[in-house]
Amino acid sequence: MSKTALQKYDRIEATGLWRPSRDAQRRDVIVSIGEATLTITDTQDRPLAHWSLPAVARQNPGQRPAIYAPDGDPGETLELADGEDEMVDAIEKLRSALHRRRPRPGRLRLVTLGSLAFGIAALAVFWLPDALRNHAVSVVPDAKRAEIGTSLQTHLIHLTGKPCSSLLATPALGKLATRLDVPNLVVVRDGVRDTATLPGGTILMNRAIVEDFEEPDVAAGFILAQKAESREHDALRQLLEHAGIGATFRLLTTGSLPDGALRAYAEALVLLPHYTPPTEDLLALFSEKQVKSTPYAFALDPSGESTIDLIEADPFVTTPEPVLTDGDWVALQGICDG
Predict the structure, then answer these.
(1) Measured between alpha carbons, how far is residue 10 from residues 34, 42, 58, 91, 260 in Å?
(2) Do 161 and 209 share a domain, yes or no?
(3) Structural element, H or E, at residue 16
(4) Which of 334, 261, 324 is nearest to 290 (CA)?
(5) Which residue, among 127, 125, 123, 129, has the nearest Cα to 246 in the 3D structure?
(6) How many structural domains comprise the chain?
C-alpha cells in the first residue's frame, strides 16, 4: 500500500470502548490510525495505549460491533460500534497491506512442505475412508454381517420395543419371509416409520404395515421396496459411513464394531430418509416375486396420483401365488397383541 493511501487513513478517528484487562471496566476512548499503529486516547486526548497494527487481532471477524485485541493479550480489547464502519474498514485494509509487506523467509520451502502435507491430508481424508469401507464391505462374510445386524437390533430395542411374536403369528411371519426371499423379518411396535434393513438382511417392519391393511400384498410391497433400496444402499456400508474410519479399521482388524458406534447408529437408523428406487426396478422386483404393485401404491398414496406408474404398470391383475393364506394373514395381523 502506497504512502498516499496510508496518509488517507491518518485523518480517520473513531469512538470506541477500551478495556485494559479482562477484569477492568470499559471506558470511552478516541481511536486514531498512524502508519503502522493504532493510538487509543481518552476523551481528554491523553494517550492510553499504542497498538502495532500488524499485531492487532480481530476477535469476531465479520461481526458487529468489531472487537480487536493485541495479539497474545486477548484480555485487553477495543470495541468499535456499528457506526464506525470507516475505521473498521481502514484497520482491516492496513492490517492486510502490512501483512503482505512482511518478509517471507523460506517461503518456497514452506509452500512445498505445505502442499505435500495438504496432499497427504487430502489422501487420508478423501480416499482412505472410502477405500477402507469398500474393502470392508467386500470382505465381511454374510455370517459376520448377520452377527452385526443382531447386535444392532439389541441396541434398537429401547427405540422399537421388543420384537412382536406370538404362537400363531411367528410361523406366518416366517412364511412371508420365505415367500419374498428375505433372510429374516421382524415386526416392531415403534421406532421405525415403515421398514428398515439391518446388516445381514433382516428387515424391520412397523406393526402398522400388518395391522392397518386388509391384504398381505401391501406388507409384501413395503418389504420388496426395502429390498430394492438395500440393493442400492448396502446396510453395512451405511453403518460404516456413520461409524467412521476408526470403527471400520477396528472391524477389519478385530472382526467387531464398538458398542458406542452401534448404539449411535441405532439412534440414527430410525431417522434415515428412504431412498426411492426407480419405478422400473421396483416393478421388476414385484414381477420377480409375483406380487401385485397396486395395493402398495394405494397404501403410499390413497389417491393414486403420485404412484400412478405403479398402478398402471402393475405386472399382475391378480397375484399368481397368494402372498399368504387368509389364515396366516389373520394370524400375522395379531402378532403384537400378545
Answers:
(1) 6, 18, 20, 11, 60
(2) yes
(3) strand 13-19
(4) 324
(5) 129
(6) 2
Question: How many other CB atoms sit within 10 Å of the CB of residue 11?
Answer: 8
The answer to whether residues 173 and 68 belong to one domain is no
- Please give the grid coordinates belonging to residue 45: 486526548
The pLDDT assigned to 327 comes to 95
Q: Is 327 exposed, middle or buried (0-12, 13-18, 19+ CB in 10 A)?
A: exposed
* 115-126 residue pLDDT tens: 555 544 444 444
pTM value surpassing 0.70: no
Amino acid at position 74, single letter: P
Given a contact cutoff of 8 angstroms between Cβ atoms, the answer to whether 187 and 336 are in contact is: yes
Q: Tell me: do 97 and 135 sit in the same domain.
A: no
Cell representation of residue 289: 416375486
- List the one residue out of 169, 179, 171 whose CA is nearest residue 210: 169
- Taking alpha carbons only, the member of 193, 165, 200, 213 closest to residue 323 is 213
Q: What sign has the CA pseudo-torsion 195, 198, 201, 204?
A: negative
Q: Hey, what's the cell of 49? A: 495505549
106 occurs within a structural domain: no
For cell 448377520, name the residue. 146
Evaluate whether 123 touches 115 at the Cβ level (below 8 Å).
no
**Direct distance between the N- and C-terminal alpha carbons of the chain, in angstroms, rounded to an integer:** 82
Domain region containing 70: 3-101
Query: Which residue type, as a one-letter code, is found at position 54?
Result: P
CA 28, CA 46: separation in Å to the nearest integer?
12
Q: Are 217 and 291 in contact (CB under 8 A)?
A: yes
Residue 304's identity, in one-letter code, is: G
Given a contact cutoff of 8 angstroms between Cβ atoms, the answer to whether 185 and 223 are in contact is yes
In the chain, count H helices and then E strands. Answer: 15, 10
What is the tens place of the pLDDT at every residue in 259-281?
999 999 998 888 888 888 899 99
The b-or-e profile of 197-211 (16+ CB within 10 A means b, else e) is bbbbbbbbbbbbbbb
